[in-house]
From TrEMBL:
InterPro entries: DUF1731 (IPR013549), Epimerase_deHydtase (IPR001509), NAD(P)-bd_dom_sf (IPR036291), SDR39U1 (IPR010099). Residues 3-207 form the NAD-dependent epimerase/dehydratase domain. NCBIfam families: yfcH. Gene3D superfamilies: NAD(P)-binding Rossmann-like Domain. Residues 243-289 form the DUF1731 domain. Belongs to the NAD(P)-dependent epimerase/dehydratase family. SDR39U1 subfamily. This is TIGR01777 family protein.
Length: 293
């Protein structure tokens, strides 16, 4: 099986790549330039060299995208986020001679916009805002592949928990006892263990009935305060100091909404699909991750 992977050196990409290589797939990684961090078994291609692929790809897995939470959302930063997702996906489609049999593309629960009191299933109308606009445009660029009879699967991710990623950035404040509730902690915290992300992607590769958008979040619905307590407990630390909303608004501006607001997102389609989550409980997930640290 021939698989093209964008974002191979990212947090999810690194974990996924290990599994794909173990399965013996022929992997092509999309890179800006040759990257020595990648396994020697991986074929590295740039956008320009994608035209070298004469045969049809079995799967294109689209993980690329600048970290949405790493910098404040200035006008320039918003454009960078858009280009690293939407423009890149469009460029890949245009560069490939043959549309892949399957496209598996990431999105995020930010698709549903800023909301605290609504429950969001895959078909629930979203709220407006930059996060929604970005995710919606990214999904549209991925869905464009379906015009060529390509099966398209989109995963709307919650906060992905594992070694590194968002949890890696939170680790030091929590170790210092500074990981208390954010803005009261009543906002919903949609999460997913990295192992379940990889398993869902593999399931979508193997099972042709996966099609359309899926909320890739754990079935356990928790508030941010509950996450903070659980993570602090896994580190054997207290959660004394809450982070006030005004401080985040001052520091992060519009991007603060990622932390201060959280939608209640349900993985309805995955559960109907029969997908078995390995980590359904936040305590078990965080203990497992900390055990590997």
């Amino acid at each position: 099986m021939k698989i093209l992977l964008s974002g191979a050196t990212g947090f999810i990409g690194q974990h996924l790549l290990q599994t794909l290589l173990k399965k013996g797939y022929e992997i092509y990684a999309l890179v800006k330039q040759v990257d020595n961090r990648l396994d020697s078994r991986v074929n590295q291609l740039t956008i320009k060299s994608l035209t070298q692929l004469e045969e049809q790809l079995d799967v294109f897995i689209n993980l690329a995208g600048e970290n949405i939470a790493s910098q404040p959302w200035t006008k320039k930063r918003k454009q960078t986020l858009f280009e690293s997702r939407v423009v890149l996906t469009n460029n890949i489609q245009q560069a490939l001679k043959h549309s892949p049999k399957t496209v598996i593309s990431m999105s995020a629960v930010g698709y549903y916009g800023v909301a605290r009191h609504d429950v969001f299933y895959e078909n629930t109308p979203p709220k407006s805002g930059f996060a929604h606009d970005l995710c919606a445009a990214w999904e549209e660029s991925a869905n464009a592949f379906s015009n060529n009879n390509t099966r398209v699967v989109i995963f709307r991710l919650g906060v992905v928990l594992g070694m590194g990623g968002a949890l890696g950035k939170m680790r030091l404040p929590f170790l210092c006892g500074l990981g208390g509730p954010i803005a009261g902690g009543k906002q919903w915290f949609s999460w997913i263990h990295i192992d379940d992300v990889v398993r869902a992607i593999i399931a979508a590769i193997d099972d042709q009935s996966y099609k359309g958008a899926f909320n890739l979040v754990a079935p356990q619905l928790i508030e941010q305060k509950r996450f903070a307590q659980s993570y602090a407990a896994s580190l054997k630390r207290p959660t004394f100091f809450p982070t006030p909303r005004w401080m985040l608004n001052l520091i992060l501006g519009e991007m603060a909404s990622l932390l201060t607001e959280g939608a209640k997102v349900v993985p309805q389609r995955l559960e109907k699909q029969g997908f078995e989550f390995q980590y359904k409980n936040i305590d078990h997930a965080l203990i497992d991750i900390e055990r590997c640290h």
